[in-house]
Amino acid sequence: KIAIHDCENNSGFDNFEIKDNANIEDLNKLARKLEEIKTKGLTNEFNALHEALGDFEEALEYLETNRYLFYSGVTMEEVAKNYIENNCTIPKYLENYIDYKAFANYMHLEVFYTKTAYGIIKIF
């Protein structure tokens, strides 16, 4: 039996913890999954999911099933503006009256977009 008493997280995956009684076979499977995520360039997406959901396994499940939208390097207001421009027909004379900040707040509270340290994530 193997016991892990001290380890460093240099994986690039934040808040990743290994428990003392972790099964070595499970750790190897997890290491392969994490390496695949890194190889595919999805580390920020995974970290955003993990931050938003608060659960490592659940974040893996959402990533693997592609049940999320991820926005990097933009503000919530920009996401709101993009959403309106792509999904709504706004008459030209009303364009200047749209409160993107208020709509961004609505999207955060009612449509479940979450701002994380890695970007903005919407979970389905």
Overview features:
124 residues, mainly alpha, 5 helices
How would you describe what is shown here?
With 124 residues, this protein is mostly helical. The protein has five helices and three strands. It has helices at 24-39, 43-53, 56-65, 76-87, 100-110; strands at 68-71, 113-115, 120-123. The longest helix has 16 residues, at 24-39. The radius of gyration is 19 Å and the shape is elongated. The N and C termini lie far apart (40 Å). The model has no long low-confidence stretch (mean pLDDT 86).
Q: What about the largest sheet?
A: 3 strands, antiparallel
How many beta-strand segments?
3
From the helix content, strand content and strand pairing, which structural class follows?
mainly alpha
Provide the low-confidence segments as ranges.
none
Q: TL;DR of this structure?
A:
The protein is mainly α and 124 residues long.
Write the layout of secondary structure elements.
Layout: H1 24-39, H2 43-53, H3 56-65, E1 68-71, H4 76-87, H5 100-110, E2 113-115, E3 120-123
Antiparallel strand pairs: 1-3, 2-3
